[in-house]
Amino acid sequence: MSSIPPPASPPVSSPTSSPSAPASGEHDAVYRRVLRRETHVSRSGSVAVAVLVALVVAAAAVFAAALVFLDQNVLGIDPRAVVDGAARAPRGLVDAIVVVTGAVVAVIGLVFLLQGVLPQRRPRHTMSSRRLAIVVDDEVLASAAARAARSATRLGPDAAVGTVGRRTVEVVLRPAAGVDVPAVAATDAVEREFAEIDTTPSITPRVRVQPTGRVDG
Amino acid sequence: MNATNRALGRIALVIVGLALLVGGLGTVLVQTVPQAADLWHQAARASLGDLGADASRDASIAAWAWVLGGAVVLGVLALAVLTTLGGGRVGTVIEDDGAADGLPGEVRIVAAAVQHALSSAIGELPQVASLAVDVYRVRRRRALRIKVRPRKGASPREIADRIEDIVTDLDALLGERLPVLLQIARGGSGSSRPDRVH
User: Fold this and answer.
1) Which of A27, A46, A204, B136 is surrounded by the most beta carbons within 10 Å?
2) Are residues B103 and B30 in the same domain?
3) Which three-class secondary structure state does DSSP give residue A46?
4) Is residue B96 located within the same domain as residue B180?
5) Contact call for B181 and A47, based on CB within 8 A
6) Do A172 and A208 form a contact (C-beta atoms < 8 A)?
7) Please, where in chain A does CATH 3.30.300 lie?
8) Helix, strand, or coil here: A200?
């Protein structure tokens, strides 16, 4: 597809589709939204569970109200008697069962609450681009850092390990015993690589040579 | 990148979480601390009396009608939140009836066409192990998502530059600059093998 010739006339923006401006800032709002969503965890799983809990509670209440209206009971239990029992608490209730149930419910509630309140980033960075919105997983950055560090040395593919944090990347070189490693050249290579990648937030590389050599082929 | 309303979801999580937390802690306190139990008895006598077995038939019906109404409202709200989850993937990229004074008719480009074009172009890159292209609705517009799983050690900038060129070609082809998200993701089949050509 990269061989498709550009059309003779410049693309005409149409009235029904987007009012696209020629400038590169045309998708700023969309890109901001997309990048924010891609760098943060979706809570849809916990939201679904929380909503199901609410639905179950609502269904139980509807069922209980229906029983009262029809003056019926299920398995000999009248909802009104249940309310009376709850109102008399802790008299007539088994300590252990109530406390354990209450604690479990409280913990589930705390988990939902924290899920809703905490920001929860994903291990991802965004990259600058003229045309695209780009997110890149930290694992990909780490493996690129390891490759860059290794390319400046003569080490095997397993001898470099990269770890990416939010603002740092650390590359650990583990040369075989007796092999000399040009650590400065490796640092330069990783720095060049990350200057090129240009992530947000920016990443500072650090290269470390593990002094304890290993023995291998 | 789907159409989930995240703000609404988080509000629902906070409300349900608070309700469960307060309810659970309250139950434990009432059961173990006598002062809390006294407070609970006062509150229960005032508010739960009509729900009990000792209330008259009319008062009981009225009180439980409130319970029923509240439960129905809660259920409807819960279902409303549930319907906002997911979705947003669409089948057409462009629907265009042309200029106002043009011929009658409509041009429609379906997502599969763009998916195939991008997949065949990007799939040829040596750094890319696997990829997926999807079309989503974002802010009432169409947006593309290109998810790429690179081979081990591939340079993200190189991949980004190549795909940027391909997307520029796509712009020329479609005559419109769609918003495009490029996601460079870890793992995937073939990604453990390093790129053999350097």
Assistant:
1) A27
2) no
3) helix
4) yes
5) no
6) yes
7) 124-209
8) strand
Does the beta carbon of A141 lie under 8 angstroms from any beta carbon of chain B? yes
Which range has the worst mean pLDDT, A115-124, B99-108, B141-150?
A: B99-108
What is the pLDDT at residue B191? 55
Nearest-by-CA chain B residue for A91: B31
Contacts of A18 in chain B (CB under 8 A): 141, 176
**B56-82 pLDDT, tens digit each:** 888 888 888 999 999 999 999 999 999
End-to-end Cα distance, chain A: 44
* pTM beyond cutoff 0.80: no
Residue in A52, A65, A106 nearest the CB of B71: A65
Distance from the Cα of residue B142 to its chain's centroid: 16
> What DSSP string runs through B35-100?
HHHHHHHHHHHHHSGGGSTTS-HHHHHHHHHHHHHHHHHHHHHHHHHHHTSS--B-SEEEEE---T
Q: Residue range A38-51: average pLDDT?
A: 91
The count of structural domains within chain B is 2
Say yes or no: B77 and B134 in one domain: no
Structural domain range at position B48 = 6-83
Question: What's the confidence (pLDDT) of residue A25?
Answer: 66
CATH dotted code for A124-209:
3.30.300
In a domain, B195, yes or no: no
CA distance A102 to A41: 29
- Nearest 5 degrees, angle CA A7-CA A10-CA A12? 110
Length of chain B measured in residues? 198
Q: How does pLDDT run across A169-189, given as a tens digit for each residue?
A: 999 988 887 778 888 999 999
User: Nearest by CB to B172, which of A6, A131, A136?
Assistant: A6
Q: How far is CA A215 from CA A124, A174, A175, B45, in A?
A: 35, 10, 9, 78
Domain final residue pick, B35, B57, B83: B83
Within a domain: B198: no
- Residue B190 falls inside a structural domain: no
Least confident of A65-69, B60-64, B94-98, B168-172: B94-98
